[in-house]
Automatic annotation (TrEMBL):
Entries under InterPro entries matching the protein: 4Fe4S-binding_SPASM_dom, Aldolase_TIM, Elp3/MiaA/NifB-like_rSAM, PqqE-like, Radical_SAM_PqqE_MftC-like, rSAM, rSAM_sf
The protein's required cofactors: [4Fe-4S] cluster
Domain named Radical SAM core: residues: 15-228
Domain of life of the organism encoding this protein: Bacteria
NCBIfam families for the chain: rSAM_more_4Fe4S (TIGR04085)
Keyword list, A-Z: 4Fe-4S, Iron, Iron-sulfur, Metal-binding, S-adenosyl-L-methionine
PANTHER family reported in the protein's UniProt record: PQQA PEPTIDE CYCLASE, RADICAL SAM DOMAIN PROTEIN
Species of origin: Nannocystis exedens
Pfam families the record matches: Radical_SAM, SPASM
Protein name: Radical SAM additional 4Fe4S-binding SPASM domain-containing protein
Molecular function as annotated in GO: 4 iron, 4 sulfur cluster binding; catalytic activity; metal ion binding
Length: 418
C-alpha cells in the first residue's frame, strides 16, 4: 500500500516544512453546529479573494506542502473551490475536503472529482438523535449519509470524522457499524474540545476520566473491524478501520492498535506537530501552526501583509513546537514517564481547556495512574468564552475520589422539531 502524501519521509526531518495544511477557505456554513470550534455560520468580512487563494497555493508549493485539506465553514460554498482544487492538484498537491455533507449533491461531488479532489471526509457524530442535536439541524444526519453515497458514486474516497462527547460516547459501536455499512474507508475519532460553541456547553464535554471508557470502546471496535475484514476476505489495508485523532489516546494498552495505519509500521503519539509539519490557514489569511489552535495566542501573521514563507520560517507563534523540550511542561505532565516523547499531548486541547499548553488532563495513561490512586479528574468551568471564532473559556482541574457521584445530571437528548 502506498504511503499517504502527508506521511513523513526521512528528508522531512531535516527542517520544518508544512507537509500537511488544513485550509479554512470560508467561515460561511450551511450548519450552525452547537459544538463548532470556529463558530462558523457567516463568512468573514475580509476573506481571501480568488487570486489571493491561488497565490497562497503557489506559496505552499514552494514550501513543499504535499497535502491540503479544505475546510470551512463549508469549503464547497465558495464557487471558486473547484478552481483552487484544480490549481493545487496540477501543482502536485493532494487535495481533500472535510465537510458536514449537508449540500453534498451528486452534481457537486462530480465537479469536485473532476477538479481533482482525491478524498472527502463527511462528519457523522453518531446515530440520528445525537448527530442532529450536535449539528443543531433536523435532517442533518440523513443529509450526511446521502452525501456519503453521492461522493462514493462520484468515485471519491470517503472517510468520516466524529466528535466524541457525552452525547455520543455510549453509541460508538452503533456509529461504527453505520459508517462501515455506508462504505466509509476510515473513521477518525476526535474528542470535542472546549473551544468555540463547545466551550459554551460544558455539560456536553467528556470529563478526563471518561477517556478510559472511550478508548477501550474504540479498541473493541477496531478488533471488530479486523474480524469483519477477515470474514469478508478484505485486506486490512483496504478495510474500514478506526484512527485516533490528535487529541485522543496517549500511551495506553491500545495506542498502537488505534494509532497505526493498516499496512504501516507500528506508530504511537510523538508530540504535537503544529508548526513542524502542519500549518493552519484561516479564511482571512491568518496563519497558525495548526488549524485548531486558538487564534489569539497562536497567530503567526497574515498573508495579506507578509509572505507566507516568512511567517512560517520566522514567527515564534508558529515555531513553538519545533525545538520543544520538557521545560514548559507542568502539573502531572512534567513528571510523567512519557514526558520526553508526548510533551503533554495535543496543544490546542490543553490550551483551550486550561488556558495554557503543557499539562493535558485528557490522557489515557494519566487517567489510569489517577485511578490506581483511587482518584479521578474533572474540569470545571470558571470563566466563559468571549464568543469569537476559535475562542476558549477557562477551566480548572479538580481531583476527586474515583467513585464520586456523577458531577452533573446525565445528558438527555432533546427532541428536535422537523
Amino acid at each position: 500500500m502506498n504511503s499517504p502524501a502527508r506521511a513523513l519521509r526521512p528528508d522531512d526531518l531535516r527542517q520544518p516544512r508544512p507537509i500537511y495544511v488544513v485550509w479554512e477557505t470560508t467561515l460561511r456554513c450551511d450548519h450552525e453546529c452547537a459544538h463548532c470550534g470556529s463558530r462558523a455560520g457567516d463568512a468573514r468580512p475580509d476573506e481571501l479573494s480568488t487570486e489571493e487563494l491561488l497565490e497562497v497555493a503557489d506559496a505552499l508549493v514552494r514550501l513543499g506542502s504535499r497535502e491540503v485539506t479544505l475546510i470551512g465553514g463549508e469549503a464547497y460554498l465558495r464557487g471558486d473551490c473547484y478552481r483552487l482544487i484544480e490549481h493545487m492538484t496540477k501543482a502536485g498537491i493532494r487535495v481533500t475536503m472535510q465537510t458536514g455533507g449537508r449540500g453534498l449533491t451528486q452534481d457537486r461531488c462530480r465537479k469536485l472529482r473532476e477538479a481533482g479532489l482525491a478524498a472527502i471526509g463527511v462528519s457523522v457524530d453518531g446515530p440520528e438523535a445525537a448527530h442532529d442535536t450536535l449539528r443543531a439541524s433536523p435532517g442533518s444526519h440523513a443529509a450526511a449519509l446521502k452525501g456519503i453515497r453521492n461522493a462514493r458514486e462520484a468515485g471519491l474516497l470517503v472517510t468520516s470524522n466524529s466528535q466524541i462527547n457525552r452525547l455520543n460516547k455510549d453509541v460508538l459501536r452503533e456509529t461504527a457499524e453505520l459508517l462501515a455499512d455506508a462504505g466509509v474507508a476510515v473513521w477518525r475519532a476526535q474528542m470535542t474540545a472546549p473551544m468555540g460553541r463547545a466551550a459554551d456547553r460544558p455539560d456536553w464535554l467528556l470529563e478526563p476520566y471518561m477517556v478510559l471508557e472511550v478508548i477501550d470502546t474504540l479498541a473493541d471496535i477496531q478488533r471488530w473491524a479486523q474480524r469483519r475484514a477477515a470474514d469478508r476476505g478484505i485486506p486490512w489495508e483496504r478495510a474500514f478501520h478506526v484512527r485516533l485523532g490528535n487529541n485522543l489516546g496517549y500511551f495506553g494498552p491500545h495506542e498502537q492498535l488505534l494509532r497505526t495505519r493498516p499496512g504501516s509500521p507500528d506508530s504511537y503519539w510523538q508530540g504535537c506537530s503544529a508548526g513542524k509539519f502542519v500549518m493552519g490557514i484561516e479564511s482571512d489569511g491568518t496563519i497558525k501552526g495548526c488549524p485548531s489552535l486558538p487564534t489569539a495566542p497562536y497567530t503567526g501573521g497574515n498573508v495579506k501583509t507578509a509572505a507566507l514563507a516568512d511567517i512560517w520560517n520566522e514567527a515564534p507563534e508558529i515555531a513553538f513546537a519545533r525545538d520543544r523540550g520538557t521545560s514548559e511542561l507542568w502539573g502531572f505532565c512534567k513528571s510523567c514517564y512519557y514526558a520526553e516523547v508526548c510533551r503533554a499531548g495535543c496543544s490546542f486541547t490543553a490550551h483551550s481547556a486550561i488556558g495554557k499548553r503543557g499539562n493535558n488532563p485528557f490522557c489515557y495513561y494519566r487517567a489510569t495512574q489517577m485511578k490506581r490512586k483511587g482518584l479521578r479528574e474533572r474540569v470545571v468551568l470558571r470563566q466563559a468564552a468571549p464568543g469569537d471564532p476559535y475562542d476558549f473559556g477557562q477551566y480548572e482541574i479538580v481531583e476527586e475520589p474515583w467513585d464520586s457521584a456523577p458531577p452533573r445530571a446525565a445528558v438527555r437528548l432533546p427532541v428536535l422539531a422537523g
